[in-house]
Design a protein that fits this description.
Blueprint (H helix, E strand, L loop, with lengths): L2 H7 L3 E7 L5 E11 L2 E7 L3 H8 L2 E7 L10 E7 L2 H30 L4 E8 L1
Antiparallel strand pairs: 1-2, 1-4, 2-3, 3-6, 4-5, 5-6
InterPro entries: F420H2_bilvrd_red/Heme_oxyg (IPR052019), PPOX_F420-dep_Rv2061_put (IPR019965), Pyridox_Oxase_N (IPR011576), Split_barrel_FMN-bd (IPR012349)
Organism: Kibdelosporangium aridum
Keywords: Oxidoreductase
Length: 126
């Protein structure tokens, strides 16, 4: 894993910036974790970033605070959507990283909204 991406994977929040059709940037603060050589993030499957990522997998990743205030320079990356089995595995990784609050949010979402209500993405550096 790229050293910069590894540093970001240890952060509590990262700013994932996706791109609209016209090229405008749309930053969003998300939880993240490390999975092998990739940074992973978890999101609702009906989020706007999912639609944008279907069209353009290029992203910028930077460390941020809970409100999305950028704390580091962005690095370019490519995101790929994980399948259902990988998403289930990553939910456990995320719950481990974020402790009780992670477990409550992730498994609460799965219980009340269903397993297809959230998906995970893996980001590798370009």
């Amino acid at each position: 894993m790229d050293a910069e991406l590894a540093r970001l994977a240890d952060a509590s929040y990262v700013l994932v910036t996706t791109f609209r059709k016209d090229g405008r940037k749309v930053p969003t603060a998300v939880w993240c974790a490390r999975d092998g050589e990739e940074l992973i993030f978890w999101t609702r499957s009906d989020a706007g970033k999912v639609k944008r990522l279907r069209r353009n997998q290029n992203v910028e990743i930077a460390e941020c605070d809970v409100r999305g205030k950028q704390k580091s320079e962005p690095i370019p990356g490519v995101a790929r959507q994980l399948d259902a089995a990988e998403t289930d595995r990553i939910r456990k990784v995320m719950a481990r990283k974020y402790g009780l609050s992670g477990w409550l949010v992730i498994y609460g979402s799965k219980l009340f909204r269903g397993r297809d209500a959230t998906i995970c993405y893996a980001v590798s550096s370009t």
